[in-house]
Write a structure and sequence with these properties.
By secondary structure, the protein is of the alpha/beta class. It folds into 2 domains: 2-120, Rossmann fold, CATH 3.40.50; 126-220, Arc Repressor Mutant, subunit A. It contains 8 helices and 11 strands. A 5-stranded parallel sheet has the order 2-1-3-4-5, with helices on both faces. It has a 4-stranded antiparallel sheet with strand order 6-7-8-9, covered by helices on one side. The chain has a two-stranded antiparallel sheet with strand order 10-11. Helix 3 (59-68) links the parallel strand 3 and strand 4. The protein is elongated, with a radius of gyration of 20 Å. The two termini are 22 Å apart. The structure holds calcium ion. Calcium ion (CA) binds at residues 8-9, 51, 53-54. Calcium ion is lined by residues 8-9, 51, 53-54.
């Protein structure tokens, strides 16, 4: 995994580079926006860490220009600014995530891992957990080779759980990503769908794949 860090403050750039290298990533550093934009467009990176306040070209412009050039490398924006409008501007410009300086390195790494994971799963069209396979283009789910008919919503819900296999997904995550809405927390729609999914996926099998994480949400075992 190769990461480009665009940061003009040398000590911060050095600190980020060292931390990322220790975590096992290959790292290039650009010290101004123009250099960052050039490198991002000519080299292949899995992720870009982009400061907003940069000489020559600011981070928002770098991000906008990259997206205009159809370079869709995930971008984690970094800035000392802590104003809501800057965050909105960064995300509107096409950044995937945003972190305010100073930050805890542990959180920084967690965000990077999440973005890299998301990148992988976004291009993936087939998900497999144990003997359960979800084929996205074929719109087909099988377990132990046997096809399982699902409703459209159940399929979406299972796809979401499988994208994040091994991680807890909360009801809020599910309502936002599967139902595209925040609905009342008293609703039991999600639980009803999970119940149905379990019945179809797990019933009659030795291993139950869809687990409940008490007080947190659901998880499909990775
Ligand atoms: Ca800066």
């Amino acid at each position: 995994m190769r990461i480009l860090v665009v940061e003009d403050e040398k000590h911060i750039a050095g600190f980020i580079k060292q931390g990322l290298q220790e975590a096992g990533y290959a790292v290039d550093v650009a010290y101004d926006g123009e250099e960052g934009y050039f490198l991002a467009g000519t080299e292949k990176y899995d992720l870009i860490v982009l400061d907003i306040m940069l000489p020559k070209m600011d981070g928002i412009s770098v991000c906008k220009n990259l997206r205009k050039d159809k370079i869709m490398t995930p971008i984690l924006m970094l800035t000392a600014k802590d104003f809501v409008e800057d965050k909105v501007e960064g995300l509107d410009a096409g950044a995937e995530d945003y972190l305010t300086k100073p930050f805890a390195f542990k959180e920084f790494l967690a965000r990077i891992r999440a973005l890299l994971r998301r990148k992988e799963t976004l291009v993936s069209t087939k998900f497999q957990v144990a003997d359960l396979i979800l084929d996205l283009p074929g719109h087909k789910v099988t377990r132990a080779g046997k096809e399982i008919p699902l409703t459209a919503k159940e399929f979406q819900l299972l796809e979401y759980l499988m994208r994040y296999a091994g991680q807890v997904v909360t009801r809020t995550d599910i309502s936002e990503c599967v139902w595209d809405t925040h609905f009342s927390t008293t609703t039991n729609t999600i639980d009803v769908h999970i119940h149905e999914l379990r019945r179809k996926i797990d019933e009659g099998h030795k291993t139950a794949l869809i687990g409940t994480v008490r007080g947190r949400g659901y998880m499909i075992k990775g």
